Amino acid sequence: MGRDTERALDYVAERSILVPHGCRLWTRSLTTDGYAKAVVTEAGRERTVRVHRWLMEQVHGPLPVRAITAHSCNESLCVHINHLSSATQRTNMRQMADQGRAAGRAHLGYADTRGSLGRAQALQAALREGLDLDALAAAMLEGEARPLVRKALAGGYDAEAYLAAVRESDPSAAMVPLFSADHSVAASDVEDDDGQMSLF
């Protein structure tokens, strides 16, 4: 592991909290859609980045053109390198639809009723004073639409029960691993017509 990679991982670790179910939740600034945001200095120039994408680039090098960084845990606030992988926008949207997380204009399926920013803000508020599992469970439960996950969180925080309920609630679990170790997308896998816009 190179020095720049270690520095990037340390930077993220200092600004996040590792929770027992495996996510590393960002405790600093957020984008308007609930993703971790930071200002980094590279080659003497400051730029604002989405932390999950920036971290992938620091650890794995430049991403293929039109590739995005997807969260296998489906938690926009998560910056755990093992929960991130390169994907196409089309693949990411298909996974979201398969899992029933597409909200659209009206609340449908299993998307958090607060939206991704509302969920991220609630989780950050619960962790403001450090790792408080009861506060975290309450914040996770508040906008949760999946009945099995609601039941698992209703009695307080239990990492194993939460992860089991997430897996059991996911209709595409047989096709999409919850925490994939595959971090790469070949340039040939990135299709030209997927509608993905460059983030930077």
Task: Throw out a few tags for this protein.
200 residues; alpha+beta; two-stranded antiparallel sheet
What is the gist of this entry?
With 200 residues, the protein is α+β, with helices and mostly antiparallel strands. The chain has seven helices and six strands. It has helices at residues 3-14, 51-60, 89-98, 115-127, 133-142, 147-154, 159-169, and strands at residues 16-18, 24-26, 37-42, 45-50, 68-71, 84-87.
Mind explaining what this structure looks like?
The protein has 200 residues and is an alpha+beta fold. It is built from seven helices and six strands, in the order αββββαββααααα. Helix 1 packs antiparallel against helix 2 and helix 4 (115-127) packs antiparallel against helix 5 (133-142). 33% of the residues are buried.
Profile the largest sheet: 2 strands, antiparallel
Strand content: 5-15%
Q: SS-based structural class? A: alpha+beta
Helix content: 25-40%
Q: How far apart are the termini? A: 26 Å
Shape: globular
Q: For the largest sheet, list the strands in their spatial order.
A: 1-2
